[in-house]
Amino acid sequence: MQPEWKKKKLKAWMEAYGDAVLRTCYLYLKDRYLSEDAAQETFVKVYEHMETFRGESSEKTWITRIAVNVCKNYIRKNWFQKERTSLDEGRQQDGSYEMAEDGMTLVPAIFGLPEKYREVILLYYYRELKVKEIADILDLKEAAVLQRLKRGRADVGI
What residues does the RNA polymerase sigma-70 region domain cover (predicted)? Predict the structure, then answer.
């Protein structure tokens, strides 16, 4: 039987960061059901490795980094590549990406970026994380994050 403090801590973290983890997973996977699976897997990993959290970063950063790694593992799987292609084609046909009234949006351009630029753009603008937090999550130097932000912005015109 697991210690009661782990259950309480997990519950608190799920309440505090659950929505953010789910949104982060959706940004990577672009599928509601896969995102829910990835978020659930994230918290399973958080529970299993709770004792390894050393407090060198914030809880939010640590949990987000786990979520990002879970999503990257999903993306690496061959079946995901096939599903993602059909998912993207379906979204483009039904206009799901369009957000602005005039049909002009940055979303397709952002999702068209190479992963290293896309993830920093999404974490910075959508998740509203600080450069330091992004650097911790992605295990990069702050200068690398800033450079990727600059190049990603240039590629999409923001």
Answer: 14-79
